[in-house]
Structure formats: C-alpha cells, structure tokens
Amino acid sequence: xxxxxxxxxxxxxxxxxxxxxxxxxxxxxxxxxxxxxxxxxxxxxxxxxxxxxxxxxxxxxxxxxxxxxxxxxxxxxxxxxxxxxxxxxxxxxxxxxxxxxxxxxxxxxxxxxxxxxxxxxxxxxxxxxxxxxxxxxxxxxxxxxxxxxxxxxxxxxxxxxxxxxxxxxxxxxxxxxxxxxxxxxxxxxxxxxxxxxxxxxxxxxxxxxxxxxxxxxxxxxxxxxxxxxxxxxxxxxxxxxxxxxxxxxxxxxxxxxxxxxxxxxxxxxxxxxxxxxxxxxxxxxxxxxxxxxxxxxxxxxxxxxxxxxxxxxxxxxxxxxxxxxxxxxxxxxxxxxxxxxxxxxxxxxxxxxxxxxxxxxxxxxxxxxxxxxxxxxxxxxxxxxxxxx
Length: 389
Fold this sequence. Notes:
Blueprint (H helix, E strand, L loop, with lengths): L3 H17 L1 H7 L5 E5 L7 E2 L2 E2 L3 H19 L8 H29 L8 E6 L20 H4 L1 E6 L11 H5 L3 E6 L13 H14 L3 E6 L5 H8 L5 E5 L1 E4 L5 E4 L5 E3 L3 H5 L7 E5 L20 H7 L4 E5 L5 H17 L5 H13 L7 H4 E4 L6 H4 L7
Parallel strand pairs: 1-4, 4-5, 6-7, 6-8, 8-12, 12-13
Antiparallel strand pairs: 2-3, 9-10, 10-11, 13-14
Helix pairs in contact: 1-2, 3-4, 7-11, 11-12
C-alpha cells in the first residue's frame, strides 16, 4: 500500500503536467461525450479520487492471467498449437473480466454512459500504465471495451518537452520517417509485410502533403534511423521486429542486426524533439515489464521514452503480433486518419481494430494494439503544420 503523501505527490505531478500543457489543459475542460478518467495507483485504491476496496487483489489476478496469455502467445509453436491458441484466448478473457470489475465501479461512481460514440481517455502513470485496461470486459460474453468505445491512454510523464514551432517551421511541409524491414537475409526473422506496408504508408503520407523519408530493408540501419529521427520528423513509423532486451528494455531490431532500446532514446535524440506521432508496428512495443533487479516496474518503455521527449501520440503492441494483420491495421489507420474529414484519433483507431478483427488471426492482433494520445482530437491538432498549404 502506498501512503497518502505519495498519492498526493502523484496527483500534484499530474496537475503540473496539465497546467503546463495547453492542449492537455483544454482537454480537461471538455464535457459531454469527451470524458477523461484519472486512474491513479490501484494499490492505493485511488481511481478518479474514489476509494475502491480490494483493487490490489484484482490487480494481482489481472497480472496472473495476462502473464499466462503473453507466455502462451510468445511460444515458438503457438501458430500451429490449437490448444495454446484456445488457452491464450481464455486467459485474455479472464484478464478482461478482472479488469472489467474495476471499470464497472469507475462507470458507476462517475456516472459514465459509455456507448460507441463515447470517448474515454485513461490518464495513467508508471503504476497504472502496467494494467491492460483496453482488455476490460464490462459484461460477460461481450467484447473488450476498446472495441466498444473510442479509447486511448494519456500518460503522466516526469519531464515533458514542449515542441515550439517558429514561423518558418509552420510554413514547411510536415515530415515523416517510415521504416520497413523484412529481414530477408535471416531465415529466423524473415517477414513478408513490413516493406510493402512502409511503401503503402509512405504513399499515403506523400499524397497528404508530407515530405517522407522511407528506409527499406538494408537501408534501415541503426545509424540511418537515428539520423532521420534527429531531423525532428512529425511522424515516425517502424514496421519490423520488436523484442525485450536483456537490459529489460523494449527494443527494435534493425537491419544491421543491432537493436535500438527504449532507454537509449533520450541519449540518441540529444536536444532533438521526438516525433509527434510514433507508431511502432512490432511485437511487444507497448508491454510494461517488471525490472528484474529491484522488482519494480521499469518506466522506460517506448511510450514513456517518446512521450517524455515531446511526442503526442504513441501506438504499439501488448504482445507478439501477426505479420499481415498488423500491416493491414496500420494501413487502415493512416488511410482513414489522412483522408476522412473530422476523423478523431480514437475513432480512426477503433475503426482499424474492427476491420482487423475480421481477419483470421490466432494472435488477436486487433486487440493487442494500444493508443496513447487524446482520443478526440483530429490530426491537425496534433501536427500544427498539417495540412500543408
């Protein structure tokens, strides 16, 4: 249990973050369907400043089921093992039902009326981000909440870099760095979709007025990717392999066989501000993991690393995902975000879920994807230079 003084510090930190960030502050003032739910450390039973008993016990049950699910889907023979696939789905449902018990109390105490047009932003910190809230099932036999409403997370970070645009920057085209690696020279890593996905997304962005740098296959070395990021692009999209490194970091495997780790981002970017939108279409890029040295949750996930450097939106996966469905999810997301009028981030992301859900996929890629960022803002509110001209 955390004591009252620590709980107060977390709330104060969140308030400072909102006050210093104009967009976040304005979001807090929105009413009606634009709902924000402040989730503070479940161990202290503080959710939206409401006392909830026995949350620590439910949290333990959630982690137990979710850990089993991730272990099953990460096994080498998962794709061919029908028993493992059934058990995986069973553990996901168990995780969702336990999470749903907490959500039910939130809805009851805050009088939330959630339907398909609702927007819900979960404001999470280092403690609450580790819970897979998106899997929550509010009624037995129904789908997870992330399919039912426009859901996203907004993370409280320790240091937020505000990105200021001068007049010349506002006059330039928005920029994007798009990476796709099939690992054709490595039989163990070989994929079929990332490079085509990168080409398709690059064309979508170019047609929308973006200046796009595309690195395909062997072009996508660690050095080339870091060089591209230092140019302060507005969108960074990576499609390839992700992993958890021995350092306990979330990692991306690049074309030269090396890794880029989440804890390296601050050092690699230096004074450069990170992209406004980061989409890491790879395995395990949104998974929070306990630090093996001290038993505490390590905050250096990709989400926290990029958001602390100034990103507004982060998209990643909770567990290993399937090649083809993940590419279709990403292409659907960008296509609708760029080409539909008045498309909000949350609605576009949920529509991508629903479309991808129809693909036969034992990995349940549609459910694995997580969105950090305000669910009810359009692209032009995220990237000031868009649309160009």
